[in-house]
Structures are given as structure tokens and as C-alpha cells.
Amino acid sequence: MAVTVETLDKLERKITLTLPMNSIQSEVETRLKRLARTVKMDGFRPGKVPMNVVAQRYGYSVHYEVMNDKVGEAFFVAANEAKLRVAGQPRISEVEGATEGEMAFDAIFEVYPEVKIADLSTATVEKLEAEVSEDAIDKTVEILRKQRRSFAQRGMDQAATDGDRVTIDFEGKIDGEPFDGGKASDFQFLVGEGQMLKEFEDAVRGMKSGESKTFPLNFPAEYHGKDVAGKQADFMVTVKKIEAAHLPEVNEALAKSLGIGDATVEGLRSDIRKNLEREVKSRLMSRNKQAVMDALVAVAELDLPNSSVQSEVDRMIEGARAELKSRGIKDADKAPIPDDAFRPQAERRVRLGLVVAELVRANDLQAKPEQIKTHIEELASSYEKPADVVRWYHSDNRRMAEVEAIVIENNVTEHVLSRAQVTTKAVSFDELMAQQA
């Protein structure tokens, strides 16, 4: 049948659907008869409830169900007939004045936009590069040593210095009044490692066991404790014990304790290099992928379907509420979160999703089975039992879908980088590690 599609806005369309009333009534009667065979009602044996009683009890709900199904089917057929790519769910309302024996409905909905991607040779991308230096390996070795350090108590006449573990009692007051979290006994921290505010560490550094000191401390304006943020407190601290750190030697014993197969210093450094190179590759891929996506958005033209954006906003709000609930926030599921808080991010996600989908379709960038297999094997290679990890991925369709999405993004990244105007920028290992992916 011919379907008339009316354009209401850039992406908004309207189709009028007509349904014969006799087909609706026939389906309602069929479903009521089917229901009567199994329905249970007081005073009647199963399957013996009179049809008029079943119709009286369930007629409205069955009629509503049939109407939804019939209208949905009619819309699906009409949209396919008109070759429309529908975005989101249609808004359907009954139309007055339908032809006798028929019911008419208006279905208002959005369609996916046409995505125009400019010549990728006009896109500009800054690609980051980084290497694992010997210095980076040295720093990692030091971290591993610190993780396995032991402590020995210092003499009473020795002052606390960076790297020492101190045990203290302290109490803070603001305007002479104690405050929540401002007092502790037998509290331990490592001097010089940023575990305490700088003014606190500076006060304790140089103190000896048994000494007490009072000092002022200014809480930063952005301090996580809102009750004390931006305020000045007076602290009294007593050092009860000072312990000097002892780091293990870099030798075969350390390598063996870390489970290195080749339990030598060279084997340890080789293993560290391999792990750091894997991390560098992952972070570079993430950063460069983000740069590619930014470039894609910049060279693409499209209108955004409001329904898709709103669905993404709703999903993000639900995610935020779930996060609040995981933190123990009371009534997190009812937390008032305005749409505007997530709309810009939702619009970007929808825009990027549509652009990437069009690029994938037009250039055959779908994930190939061998690519998915290679990616999973690469992920599994850093674990003790890679085969178990591979099976873990293959046992869950959701996990496999996530891997497929990553591979597609990698294909898109490589495709764009091979065509865009790319400039490379070398960054240090420390700079790359400090950046949020």
C-alpha cells in the first residue's frame, strides 16, 4: 500500500495509520477465548468461567493490549514500506473523524539524519607518540621496592625524615572548637609521600619520638571536607614512634618474589618494560582515538534526533543515580538531576555514534572475526592463565559485543589517520602516565 509521509521538521515525520475495527474486535475475542481456557476465578472451575464474565473482568486490558499490538504492527509495516530509518519510539494518538468501520491514528516520530562527512584529507589530527625509557623502568623498580619495604624503629634521638613511617596522636580545633575527623590516636603515615596536607607533613618532619607541637594549618578551599574547607585550624601533634624504611635490594631475590619467570635483574627489567609498553600502547591508542573522534565530529554535518539525545540523557541520569546509590546516598533513585547536566555530553555521544556508524558502513570497517580474536588474545596475554581469560570473554555475548565495539573504533581510528593531515607530537612517559585517558 502507498504510505504518505508528512515532514513536520528537519527530522520529524508523521504517518496516519488506519485499522479496520472488525480486525481489532476479532483479535480481542480470540485472546479472551484463549484466556478463558486458563483463567482462575472464585466460584468457577478452571476453564469454565463464562465468556461474558471473562470479558467483563479482562475486556478493557485485552482491548488495550490488542490496540497497542495492532498499531505497532501497522507502524512497523508503514515505516518499512516508506523505507524510513526510525529513531526512537513514535508518539501515537487517535484521530477523530475516521471512516466508518475504521480507526485512525497519527504516528509522529523522528528519522535518523543523513550524515555528510567531508573529505578526510581536510581533517587535522595531532597524534601522540611516547617510548618507555630506562628512567621509566628505574622508577617502576623503585615503586616495586617501596611496595615491599620493611620498617625498623628509629632511636629516640633521631628525627623524622622523608620516607619514615610515623605513628602520632593529633587533635585539631577551629576557633577553639573540635571538629569531625580532626582527632586521631596511633595514626600512621609516611612522611614526604603526600598522604597528608603539606603543612601537616612539614610540621612533623624533623620531630623526634615523644615530642609534641602545636601548629596552624590552612585547609584548601577545594578540600573534600566541606565543613572545614577554606578554614584555618590549630593542630596539636604528638609523635609516638618513628620507623625508618628499608627497601629490598634489586637482585634475583626481588625478581623471584615478584614471580618473574627469568628470576634475574635483567629478567625483572625486561618484564617491567613489556608491561609498561603495553600500558603506553593502550594510553596512546586512547588519546589518539579521542583526537580522531574530535576530528571526525569537526568535518561532519548532521542534524541530531532529539529522541536519541533524550534517551542518552536518561541513560546517563540513571547511571549517575546508580553511582550515588553505590556510595550509600539515601533515596539516590529519586535524586533530582536536571537533563541539562548531561545534555551536551549526550549530544556529543549521539553525534559521534552516528558519524562513526556512517563511516563504518561506507568504508566496510566492521570488526572482522580475526580482529576480535587477536584483540582478545592480546588482552589475555597479560594474565597468568590467558586461555581462561579467552574463554571468559567468549562465554558472554555482552563482553564480546564490547570487544567488537573497541575493534570497530580502532578500525575507524586507523582509517582516519591514514587519510587525515597528521602531525606527531612526542610526549614523555611521565606526561603520558599523568594524563587521564
How would you briefly describe this protein structure?
This protein is an alpha+beta fold and 437 residues long.
CATH topology of the largest domain: Trigger factor, domain 2
**End-to-end C-alpha gap:** 53 Å
As for the number of domains, it is 3
The tally of beta strands, per DSSP, is 13
Query: What is the helical fraction, as a range of percent?
Result: 40-55%
Main β-sheet: number of strands, strand sense, barrel status?
5 strands, antiparallel
> How large is the radius of gyration?
33 Å
Overall outline: elongated
Determine the number of helices (DSSP H or I, runs of at least 4 residues).
Answer: 12
Polypeptide structure, described:
- With 437 residues, this protein is an alpha+beta fold.
- Helices cover 45% and strands 22% of the residues.
- It has helices at residues 21-36, 51-81, 134-147, 198-204, 252-257, 265-298, 306-326, 343-363, 369-380, 386-394, 397-417, 429-434; strands spanning 5-7, 12-20, 86-95, 102-111, 116-117, 124-129, 150-153, 165-174, 177-190, 212-218, 232-246, 300-301, 421-426.
- The strands form 4 sheets. Strands 7, 8, 9, 10 and 11 form a 5-stranded antiparallel β-sheet that branches.
- Strand 3 and strand 4 form a beta hairpin.
- The longest helix is centred in the middle third of the chain and has 34 residues, at 265-298.
